[in-house]
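Researcher: Here's the sequence for the chain we discussed earlier.
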Amino acid sequence: MKKCLKAAGLLFALVLAFCVMPAAVFADGTTADGLKYRLDDSTKTITITGYEGTNPKVTIPAVIGDTYPVTRIGSSAFEGNKVVTDVTFAPGSKVETINGYAFENCKTLKSIAFPPSLKEITSQAFHGCSSLTSVVIPEGVTKLGYGYYHGVFEDCTSLTSVQLPSTLTEIAWATFRNCPSLKTVNIPSGLTTLGDSAFWGTAITSVELPDGITRVGEWVFRYCTSLKTVKLSDNVKTIDTGAFEGCTSLTSINIPKDLTRLDGSTFRGCSSLRSLEFGDAVTSVEGSDFADCPKLNVRVVKGSKVETVCINNDIPFTVYAFSLGGCSIEGITEKTYTGKPIQQDPVITDGSTKLVNGTHYVLEYTNNINAGTATVKITGTGNYVGTVEKTFRITPEDISKCRIKLAKTTLVYNTNYQEPKVTVTFNGQVVDPVNNYYVSYSSNRYAGTAWVTVSGKGNFKESKKASFKIVPKAVKLKKLKATSRGFKASWKKNDIQTTGYQLQYSLKKNFKGAKTVTIKNNQTVSKSISRLKAKKTYYVRIRCYYRGSGKYYSAWSKALRVKTKK
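Model: Thanks. This is the structure I predict for it:
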């Protein structure tokens, strides 16, 4: 019965919740201008899903229903439309995304003015817009397409100019492929990805790729027949298949010295290209990379992979340099930490020729101060090219070579373990304790000789000791009583870490020529001194001592004076 009541109560609660749940203000609908839309109840935002109007000039409203912001142009919203010529966005637009195929094959679309709020344009959004003449992508957009979701402006055959934002980092596959009228496009300095076929068949005349580009993808500039000059980033390591194939006007392109791969047909059909210069880092190259280039002479490093390919495929070439990688490099040895940058004096020979530092190569070091593994980078200069890196070990120095200084070398017994501050110097420089040594103390509580042990780590090895003294607490001289040709001294007993006392007296205030009397019992609190000169003033002081492995004396008490009697 209880179970039935619980079930009935739950059902009633669900029905009540459903009845009071607010209904969506908008369902799918159409504006008076013919724009179809869909309201997302969860985000309270609107996506444009289609257009049934007849006006060729379309303005995307900022809001619909005076409340809900339009944030997206949906997939295929205007796809194949034969009416629209111009698209603008109302002031205050919050549209962030133009989805895939949104304007695909809008053959009559001539212009679109993107809103500042735009963040992304995805796959084939404007593919086949053959009347579109120019576009300005606003700041804030970081990608055109995504990876192999591609062709954002592919087959826009009338497109002549594109202004890309400084925020752009990726131009995806085939973004501007087969845009034969495209002559002007800026490449942002922050671009890091240039997808395959991105500019295939465009009319661009020059290209400069930023430092973030390390790979020129397949067919990126294929059949760009107006392309004359290309400046590649020094960071480019790979040029993929057919990247510049059929660029018949290409006359100038720099090859990065650290380029490692050409993947086939890279420069095939570049009939105006006269010279290419390669370093010795290329490990993958084939004859097809230089096919149908009748004017080309390849400048190569002696013994390099490129030279071998040229020989095997009857490609004209000229040897302009020698490879540092083919030289013998000796004399890089293990070193000991000095606290300063450590360098090497390598012996580099090419056959019987000894290379000269500064003429044939330069040296650059990393991690060459602290103990561990250091690297010397040897880079060819003059008629030598290439880079070779060698490592060498920097070993820790013995910490006995360091100077240990204690903040105090004598401390007074106080029942605690005492640890005077330690400063370690090496070659005149203070050593950082965090990475170079740790400190331990021993025999550092009671009167006697205490020890500090400094043990090396990081840049130092082994250990070194220093000592300090812990002495008894000073005793106070209480009173001096004059006697005939003498005096009696009294003091406050100090029997803690004390073996006995020393009483010292002199006719001179500076205790020059003083005489010392040793009291061996630490319980004694007075001492009489006789056989002195009559009616003379004597200066008197006292101290404790502790006998262990040696004698350890406290500080002298404050001196008192007394005048002897007749």
